């Protein structure tokens, strides 16, 4: 007897449909799985046999062959437990599918008692089912929130193998998802809690309006981390499409809490400076996404920037330029999205007190140069804004007057992005090509004069293009169609003293 049940798997962060074909023949009782399964799929036979028997069905005492098609793609994950069990019941004629139930994709891990456990990557796999024309997807009840987010796809949430069999028989209606809780990824932080640091706050606003990368340098305790964590609060909210992208990444990585729907907050990732290049970029045996992908559409905060390994930092150059990461391994290659805002923070020297008005620096000049040299010139050229933070005077720290709230800054950021959209720019200014940046700036003679004088600082063409993009954002914040000399001057002030080192 032969049966066929649709399921799906994940490759990179995209899903692809898998046909689970099952054949029962006479012979010694055994279960063989073919079609490039990994160990988690091969182990499914033990779970399936126990789940079928403990759910009140009989597991056939025959030779069972399971084929996962297409056979040329490697399959992993425990989501094949449920379709293999249902295929067994169909082939042994213990469950007779109702005709309207055709065109369903089944995903779920089985416990030994027949209950269905949640799996990762449901949103990506459900999207692939919809793209291939299937009408519905049957998932663990804990994954119903993300499956319901796919438009035009019927979602069924089941808690056991018996309930999944009822869906096949046409005895269960599609599930209605009510009030799926949103996932909380970080505590809410507000800029009103930050005292002083007007220059750094302005740099944060420009970074949010244009999507620019930002490097903050200053002694310990001056507010670098506080400012970085509050960037999320001034960025525009996620669109529906962006929310789907972020949720799919977290679902594939298994970081989406059970029962959660779409993520509505931009991600904030802050890896420790001991993180390896693989942890940052992605990779491993199965080409998993790294921190730059987990920060997609959000903020990647690298504290103690020079403490990261130089080779690790160099791997950021490609995603900062291309906004994607290509991870190639022996068995497969995957392309991950990496459109994030980089915020880096560092001390001016290893001890942290170079230039401090009250504390003496203990570092020698060679030590300082070696410390700063961890961040290479090409890497610095990919950071749009650089700002030095000074120690906060007691008068500002003790002031009872709170700073400007994040809501007020976000309002200006939204207006700037709306103005840019009306000017025909559909992407953040930091992503403009050199040609697009020149066309968008419309610089007058005074502006070109300033650029010519700045070029004498040995700025590279990449740095000049970066200056134009930052100046365009400054002009957007003022809703100015042309980039004037003052806009260029302010943007040049955020280029940082490192440009000439």
Q: What would you note in describing this structure?
A:
There is one protein chain. The chain has helices spanning 39-42, 44-54, 81-91, 122-131, 144-148, 161-169, 198-210, 224-229, 240-252, 277-281, 291-294, 310-314, 317-322, 365-372, 377-380, 394-397, 406-422, 434-441, 445-455, 461-477, 485-493; strands spanning 2-11, 14-25, 30-34, 63-69, 104-106, 109-110, 116-117, 136-140, 154-158, 214-217, 268-269, 282-283, 288-289, 299-302, 324-328, 333-337, 341-346, 385-388. The strands form 6 sheets. It has a 5-stranded parallel beta sheet. The protein has a 4-stranded mixed beta sheet with strand order 1-2-4-3. A 3-stranded parallel beta sheet has the order 5-8-9, sandwiched between helices. The N and C termini lie far apart (74 Å). The chain has 3 domains: 2-169, 2-Layer Sandwich (Ribosomal Protein S5, domain 2); 191-429, Rossmann fold; 432-501, Helicase, Ruva Protein, domain 3 (Orthogonal Bundle). It is elongated. The chain is 36% helix and 17% strand. A hairpin with a 4-residue loop joins strand 12 and strand 13 (288-289). It has 501 residues and is an alpha/beta fold. The model has no long low-confidence stretch (mean pLDDT 89). The protein has 21 helices and 18 strands.
Query: Multimeric state of these chains?
Result: single chain
The major beta sheet can be summarized as: 5 strands, parallel
Separation, N- and C-terminal Cα atoms: 74 Å
The named CATH superfamily of the largest domain: P-loop containing nucleotide triphosphate hydrolases
Which strand-content bin applies to the residues? Answer: 15-25%
